[in-house]
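Researcher: Next entry in the queue.
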Amino acid sequence: MASSDLVRRIVLLVVLCVSGGAMAQTGQDTSLVERGRYLATAADCVACHTTDPAKPFAGGVSIPTPFGQIVAPNITPDPDTGIGKWTDEEFYRAMHEGVGRNGENLYPAFPYDAFTKLSREDVLAIKAYLFSLPAMSQDNPVSELGFPFNQRWILSGWKLLNLRKGEMKPEPAQDDAWNRGAYLVEALAHCGTCHTPRDFSMGSDESRKFGGGAVGSWQAYNITPDPVSGIGDWSDDELVEYMRTGMVAGKGGAAGGMGEAVEHSLSKLPEQDLRDIVTYLRAQKPVRDPADEKPRHGWGAPSEDVSAFRGDETGDDPDGRAIFYGACSSCHGMAGAGTDDGEFPPLFRNTVVGARQANNLVMAILEGVHRTVDGETVSMEAFEHKLTSAEVAAVSNYVLKTYGNPAGATVDAAMVDELRRNAGEQPLVAKLAMPGLIIGVIVILALVFWLLTRRRRRSLR
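Model: Structure for this entry, 461 residues:
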């Protein structure tokens, strides 16, 4: 064999080895990015980290809390305004320990108490996906929280009480469906962040796990298998349909944060994932609210009152009937029965109108309903700037008394004003923070005064 042929064959062999290795690496990278895309979708990262659809994950969403506004950061790979300079270890620490790149505590509006359960491989797959996206340069406003909650060091105390660090491991005694559902519910989809009530420290109240919580002014309903307060009388297919489309006939539709979760996350998951979620939720402890008489979708019947067109001449308060027939009946029907095609749901046997708390009904009137799934858009007009708080209260009470749970018909203008702020009920820790701080300062000053007085007396002896 000529030496030149031998050289050519050696060069060809080297090229094939190098290119083969590069192709294998590219295949691995693509697989990792696709895994990360799926995980980021299941975690609904886009909901909190996207304000402008043209700049996905660039942050800027203002999250209302009882302590102030928390602004979600830019998580694109931009090196200056995003996470482009973050290492794998820094990203993992943020997800698992709630610690930022500079060692600062992160606010738990970022649900790292759930994400700590993610495996290291999945955390780094999410990072790989985010780093595959275009870098978006976007400076976002800083979070605005009142003192002392703007002091991040106090979150060390919150973590001590509420953060249980550690990756989630499969339960050997449970089947694959249960374990997959547990990982989705507890870690990735962080369902408990919204659907579990909070205790005095704003940590999850595990004694009422999945028993219903609050997200700003919206209520996240009970998703335990209790047949009255929870989802116990929903079929598996109905629960899957609700997560896939945001709507189940005879039950109701998703709005607010749940509508966003359906649009951006749940509707994009494989059906098996949704069924695994159902499997896991079915296995949870039922949580019953003693005040609930029957399921939320069990209230109401068609009702038509044409006398409403004459209005209420008995007083100066807004007439809820007249407002309903003027602003609502054109879509929801004269008898509140909705439309035959389901585009506008009936108001009776509706999980929102049948709730004892009127929050979600009021918020739907104020903010409207907007979700798009598989190209189909469901939209309800927002009346935030068209109706006064007194008018919103009047029509809410009329709808609750006529089509739903009359126990919720206690809405007044002050309540609507509070819900408009969308900050949620102030927890005990927030109510006591400033008085406690003042008392602490007084005690410290009294102690200092006592010590100085004692020292002065000793010097006079």
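Model: The chain is about 45% helix and 5% strand.
Researcher: Noted, moving on.
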